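Supplementary Text 2. Reproducibility record for the structural model of the 736-residue chain.

All settings were left at their defaults, and a single model was retained for analysis rather than an ensemble. We include the record here because the model underlies the residue-level annotations in Supplementary Table 4.
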Amino acid sequence: MTDHFDADVIVVGSGFGGAVAAARLAQAGFSVIVLERGRRWRLGEFPRAPRLKDGWLWELDRGLFDIRWLDTMGSVQAAGWGGGSLVYANVFARPFEETLDDRWPDHLRRKELDPYYDLAAHMMGVAPVGEDPRTGKATPRTRLLEQLLAHSDKAEATVRPNLAVTFGDPDTWRPNVHGAERRGCAFVGECIIGCDHGAKNTLDHTYLTAAETAGARGVTDAQVQRIEPRDDGYIVTTSTPTDPDAPLREWTASKVVLAAGAVATNEILLRSRDIHGTLPGLSRHLGHGFSGNGDFLTLAELRGERDDMTTGPTITTNTVLDVPEGRRPVWYQVQDGAFPPPLNALLDTLLPARKARDWWRRSVRKTHPRQTFAVLAMGKDSGKGRLRLDAGGDATLSWNNRWQAALYRSQVRVGPAVAKLLDARLYNPFTWSVLRRTITVHPLGGVRPGPDPATSVVDEAGEAHGHPGLYVMDGAVLPAATGVNPSATILAAAERAIETVIRRSGRPDWRAPEWGAVVPADVPEDAAFTSQSRLRNATKGDGLVFEERMTTGRRRHPRVVLTLKAEIPGMDPFLADRAHTVPMRGVIDIEELATRMPISGTLSLFPRGEHEAMSYALRFHDDEGDPWLLSGTKTVRSRNPVELLTGLTRLRTRITPIDADTSESRRFVLTIGPADLARLGTSISGRGFTRTRRLRASARFLSFFATSALRRRGPRPTDGAHDAVTGPGEEASSRR
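Retained model, structure tokens:
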């Protein structure tokens, strides 16, 4: 098959999609060449010195980071053997199915991809962070973030995500499942500037090791300029980044897999179609549907004497937020991020007035650089961006922040809330605060998949419509934001796509050789998403709280005082509930029976189809520990203001022992006095993330209450209608 080709398949790029394609094709017996523009980074070679010429920037000296300014958005990616895995934060997360809209075809949804996520998790060796082996404790940053919401209704929102990191003894080398030597994480917090310790499970030590073991050939310092069909295959033309004067080189293969990252992949295809004219059949939808994955970055600077926030893997926790913004929910997640000291030192040397800034930090703010960490958010942006070529043939982006205003508003609001909870100062990057431009480290889209060439660029295997044998297998084929770190989805989608390609080539039963060792991986983010979905449904329309205090008359015996706090989680489900159920909790004092005992239960407030205005069902234990049930009703018998107020402030009550002699039942009338009524009114408070939402919730409740009270009229009492009580506040336990 390779008689007149350099290889059966050329893979362009060694990142998450390219590494998968190279490994599987080589294992299936194809000859494979992987073209990578960057270098092979060895341990100890990653940039650390506070000088830009130490290998930090691609544009400067073919360094590690390639920062692209796409006019309306910045994009950061890596250059090197292993692609983005060299500098990503290791998170292996799956998107929540509920957040995927109709742009996601069936072959990219969880039901189809979950087995491939498990396969990728096995290949990458994922696990959640544990304790620092040198201290035996979780990192201070991990503990801080886990405690942040621990006592709130969002406690289940924070999880420790799976990380592609080797944990264990940091001093002992041992081979991973691919035979590459790894050792346990040393918790130095430098994952995003290249791991010099040897614990990060980057692609060069996982999929690319498997690829080269199976015979794939890696060629570095080769940057693709164009792709063109020839004979029954393709010619891929490359330049030499480290030697701009070197002649262009041509590589040939029957198939090409393009996986240079979303920006570069779109750029290569657009150039080949629109400048070189070599791929004229590419869809007119090429470049459409670009997404920045809703990325948003803030820096948190803790006040006072605090622990070191730079230790541990870059990301250790993930908090899922599902909040209403306008009329629809906004899903996004917030992650902690270590700010590596070498990167901080580099920025410190680049910014002006270093001595003044040091004095200000030490003397005025009284903080230390190691007390700063990143707050990383990502969510579901609109995915309406469009990549084009500028006059120089480079990618530029048409993007409008108004398209995702709801997401950005919600993400920006998180900052002050986090700052208050953490006692920290939060800073947005100047690119946002001044220029209103976001920075993405997760560029996606532009090569939409689908069966119809009139509406998509590639099919479900990533094969380009109009150009057989040309495939795209990286983040460019994801049709919208994942709302989570997308590397796992790129891996899983590439696993499925390349399996399809191999099977189409005459091996219908082919499977990756590692399948036999795959065990379904835990998905901690699913539990967080599910809990927040339930919480959103319960709190839709925002909530409300109020307090009420009811007592028997001062001269009545026994004296009873009931103090309750009502919490309506969400006005929408409350109003939709026929019973209008309100959770209640508080304390009860009953002379000679219970002294300030906790009591809880429900209030049914103006239930539909019932005569009672309010029905209470509460439980408590007496001083002996025996359980009791308190039940009571309030009834409105007239719209006359005096009778209406009397009905709404008088509770006819019965307490009954549970699982005991019901002859011990006691009956009371509890009333809300003028002072307590005033306190009840002032205690009504909406619950929502913004003041507007809190006021709206309060207004909806008061409107419901007033309307229901005026409409409610119970039956007129008959001669026996007062058998529940003998008079205001008078005990009637002997009446049966």
